[in-house]
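4.2 Preliminary Data

To establish feasibility before requesting continued support, the project team ran the inverse folding procedure on a target of 399 residues. The structure was first converted into the token representation described in Section 3, and no sequence information of any kind was made available to the design step. The complete token record follows.
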């Protein structure tokens, strides 16, 4: 590819991982354009910090394949750069008989995905050895699921980009992209540049950026906010690593879980409530444009009919603390309401949504001429970021 000029829209972990791979492999002159004044301002800086080991994903899917490579590459990067990487382990707990079948499916997928040292636990004594405060009848344990700080990792990768001659420009919102005579012109309020290729890793705005190049409006982004509660220091020992429920297989989210963060704080979350704006970090942030676009999307009726009960449950848990508490107390009964001391950060997931109402499960990429758009990069895209970068290079940028 030689010294192609490559533009990347978006300075989250995926855009920066891609910029790093391209510059380190000498595949082009790279410029990242990020609309905010710092990197990792959106999903990358507002997530659970989990390095997933690949438990849930459909075997053979991009998520399954790229998560396995991504886990190894993130671990290597953290080791090389001396960044925190703690293998605190994860327990997925079934609390009653009705959850045994979905738990068995998670175990089957995990084994097919090659999750290292996975164990099925049916002995409550063993369960309590791993997590002394947990209640359940069976579990799967993934000892190598880890926690990290994805903002710090993004910064470390950005240093590599700059050191290798790449440019990262902040405060540059891309407002137009046009392909003309084999070149791609990109416009922001402050500059206009030409590139040989452009790749958009724009997270919550990925459908809008795709719209700039005339791509299909579907899948659209449906923003789902995940709210977290911080636990008081007294409740800090309720969880040693990570304790997850068995997720509802009809829904693409993992359910409210306990996570010991990389700096030893324990938090509970994230929930999954429809956000009223793409960057709607609380109920006060409302965008009439975003909300109207979601309500009038062709798939809105189908999604509502399929998931209304789940929506009502999640929204009520957001508004009524006791309902959130009841979800978590099911598998950690010693939790008291006063242990939940305050809503901590929230993150908004960019969940792609088809016009027939389906929530897309796997990572998805569109190619429009010389522009590549990452259309769906939900969890575990932070874990998989370096692997997604490799995939984009192999399948979209060197062909
Ligand atoms: C609550 C929550 C919990 C999660 N937990 C985990 C987890 O534990 N482990 C895991 O692996 N994943 C997790 N994820 C998913 C993970 O955070 C995302 O998949 C990942 O961060 C996606 O990275 P990204 O670079 O694609 O998107 P983002 O981090 O959202 O970055 C996109 C960037 O593009 C920029 N941008 C958008 N439009 C423009 C424009 N027009 N011009 C210029 N810049 C633009 C934005 O400002 C933003 O900085 C979680 C996500 C959430 C929300």
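Position-by-position output of the design step:
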């Amino acid at each position: 590819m030689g010294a192609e000029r490559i533009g990347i829209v978006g300075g989250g972990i995926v855009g920066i991982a891609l910029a790093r791979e391209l510059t380190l492999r000498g595949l082009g002159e790279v410029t990242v354009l990020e609309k905010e004044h710092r990197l990792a301002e959106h999903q990358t800086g507002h997530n659970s910090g989990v390095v997933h080991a690949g438990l849930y994903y459909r075997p053979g899917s991009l998520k399954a394949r790229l998560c396995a490579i991504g886990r190894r590459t993130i671990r290597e990067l953290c080791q090389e750069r001396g960044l925190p990487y703690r293998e605190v382990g994860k327990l997925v707990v079934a609390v009653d008989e009705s959850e045994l079948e979905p738990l068995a499916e998670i175990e089957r997928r995990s084994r097919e995905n090659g999750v290292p040292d996975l164990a099925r636990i049916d002995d409550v004594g063993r369960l309590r050895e791993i997590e002394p405060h947990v209640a359940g009848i069976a579990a799967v344990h993934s000892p190598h699921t880890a926690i990290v700080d994805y903002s710090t990792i993004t910064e470390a990768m950005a240093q590599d980009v700059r050191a290798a001659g790449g440019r990262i420009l902040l405060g540059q919102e891309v407002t137009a992209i046009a392909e003309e005579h084999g070149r791609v012109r990109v416009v922001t309020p402050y500059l206009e540049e030409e590139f040989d290729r452009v790749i958009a890793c724009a997270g919550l705005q990925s459908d809008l950026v795709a719209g700039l190049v005339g791509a299909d409006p579907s899948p659209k982004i449906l923003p789902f906010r995940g709210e977290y509660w911080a636990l008081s220091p007294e409740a800090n020992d309720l969880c040693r690593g990570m304790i997850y429920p068995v997720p509802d297989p009809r829904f693409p989210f993992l359910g409210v879980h306990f996570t010991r963060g990389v700096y030893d704080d324990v938090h509970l979350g994230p929930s999954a409530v429809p956000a009223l704006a793409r960057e709607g970090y609380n109920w006060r942030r409302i965008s009439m444009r975003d909300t109207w676009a979601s309500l009038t999307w062709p798939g809105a009726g189908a999604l509502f009919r399929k998931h209304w009960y789940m929506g009502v449950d999640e929204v009520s848990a957001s508004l009524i603390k006791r309902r959130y508490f009841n979800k978590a107390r099911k598998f950690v009964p010693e939790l008291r309401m006063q242990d939940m001391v305050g809503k901590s950060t929230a993150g908004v997931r960019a969940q792609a949504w088809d016009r027939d109402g389906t929530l897309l499960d796997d990572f998805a990429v569109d190619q429009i001429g010389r522009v590549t758009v990452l259309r769906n990069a939900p969890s575990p895209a932070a874990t998989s970021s370096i692997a997604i970068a490799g995939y984009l290079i192999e399948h979209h940028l060197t062909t």
